[in-house]
Specification:
Number of strands: 8
Order of helices and strands: EEHEHEHEHHHHHEHEHHEHHHHHHH
Distance between the termini: 36 Å
Radius of gyration: 23 Å
Structural class: alpha/beta
Strand content: 5-15%
Length: 431
């Protein structure tokens, strides 16, 4: 496993070597073991392929900062194994990879299941903020709160071994790879493209999922032409773990009835490394899932080539965050609107997007210039931007110490006061 090349993924196989391949994709912070309870039944008729995200489950820590890059690594792994066509089921981030495959590589996909997935996961600000917290505090705060996000309260209380397993799974993930995966989710938005998903799709969600719940699932079903919705009662975000029997039944039915022919994979695969089973108590009896037919699809919206303004708006949002940009644009009127367009088009669409300097370096320069000019209000939101761009609090401190020498102690003193408050707000984990 340690010799996995940077452009491929750590994987394992289960099931007959001559069976059609069914891929199971994990969610952020989990390993392929999240699917352990589905594999025995699925492997009766499929060659089940599971993979770990970079830096998860002991996989080599080669960060991937976009869903497209994760999908490319998965395809490179499958190409090396001779797997050409497959079914795919993915949970959360794993589901995003499935949508990406359906949109960009439709000939490879026979059927699709999206579990706890969404065409856009929350807001970009939320995931970039999580990256700031991890960069500053490590993964422990995220790990300790994972059971609250993944499971219903009753399940977490009744299954302490599974709850502890979840905490340790996140805690042992590589922080840099986790941050890169957060960035991948922050930039993922395929809402206008759902109408181009052309394979039979099952959208499966837990009834109590507070992360990507039934509302997000219905958005997927409304947008994908051949999609059906299954809502599993008594389950939260990690529904394959919390309600394994219900999820297994739904996947078996979907992939048995909706697999688009031909399904011959031409596979010449090496056997995977045996997995270490997760020793946890048996789950409680599973309630029957509820399924419903999707409503009519929503037509995809046309997309044009972005101009400098649109590109600048994208960069501005990535650096400063959606909330800040939305406020600035909402406050623009006939008097200030031209200035907002000027800033977006030239500062963000041209200068900030030039390839000569990375965003970390541009943040260092910007902080220095704002201290020199005494622009403390802009220093506050550019301190937030610096954290989003990958600077640590210690690195920001070094920049401000440098300004004390070249911009003056009074200016640096004011800058430290502003930056200190911002860093406290941005790096304190949510309770």
């Amino acid at each position: 496993m340690s010799e996995t090349p940077p452009n491929t993924l750590q994987y394992r196989f289960d099931g007959p070597e001559d069976a059609p391949v069914l891929i199971l994709g994990p969610s952020l912070g989990t390993t392929w073991h999240m699917w352990d309870r589905q594999v025995p039944e699925l492997a009766k008729q499929w060659r089940v392929f599971r993979f770990d995200l970079p830096g998860h489950g002991g996989a080599p820590a080669h960060p991937a900062g976009s869903v497209a890059e994760l999908s490319a690594r998965l395809l490179a792994t499958l190409d090396a194994l001779g797997v050409q066509r497959f079914g795919y089921a993915g949970c959360a981030l794993g589901g995003a990879i499935g949508i990406e495959l359906a949109l960009r590589h439709p000939a490879r996909l026979a059927s699709l299941a999206l579990v706890a997935a969404s065409p856009r996961f929350g807001t970009a600000d939320e995931f970039r903020q999580r990256g700031v917290v991890v960069r500053t505090n490590g993964l422990d705060p995220i790990a300790r709160t994972a059971p609250d996000r993944w499971f219903t309260g009753g399940f977490a209380a009744a299954q302490p071994a599974i709850t502890e397993w979840a905490v340790q799974m996140v805690r042992t993930t590589d922080p840099g790879c986790y941050i890169a995966a957060c960035e991948a989710l922050a930039s993922f938005d395929v809402r206008p493209e759902l109408g181009r998903v052309g394979v039979p799709t099952l959208v499966l969600v837990g009834s109590d999922d507070q992360v990507t719940g039934p509302a997000e699932a219905r958005t997927l079903v409304a947008g994908i032409p051949d999609a059906r919705l299954a809502v599993v009662p008594g389950a939260s975000h990690l529904v394959p773990v919390e309600q394994p029997a219900a999820v297994t039944d739904l996947l078996v039915h979907h992939f048995s009835t909706a697999w688009q022919q031909p399904y011959d994979t031409g596979q010449t695969a090496l056997p995977g490394t045996p997995a270490v089973p997760v020793q946890v108590p048996a789950a409680a009896p599973q309630p029957a899932p509820v399924a419903e037919i999707a409503p009519a699809a929503v037509p995809a919206q046309p997309t044009g080539q972005p101009d400098r303004y649109q590109n600048g708006l994208k960069v501005r949002r990535e650096v400063l965050g959606d909330a800040h940009v939305d406020r600035a644009l909402a406050q623009a009127d006939e008097f200030s609107g031209d200035f907002q367009e000027f800033v977006t088009r030239y500062a963000w669409g041209e200068i900030w997007d030039r390839p000569g300097l990375d965003r970390r370096t541009r943040s260092c320069i910007t902080l220095t210039a704002l201290v020199a000019g005494g622009h403390l209000e802009e220093l506050a939101f550019h301190t937030r931007a610096a954290l989003r761009n990958g600077l640590t609090p210690d690195e920001i401190k070094e920049v401000l110490l440098q300004t004390a020498v070249y911009c003056g102690v009074p200016a640096a003193n004011s800058a430290f006061r502003v930056a200190q408050q911002v860093i406290r707000e941005e790096t304190t984990p949510a309770e």
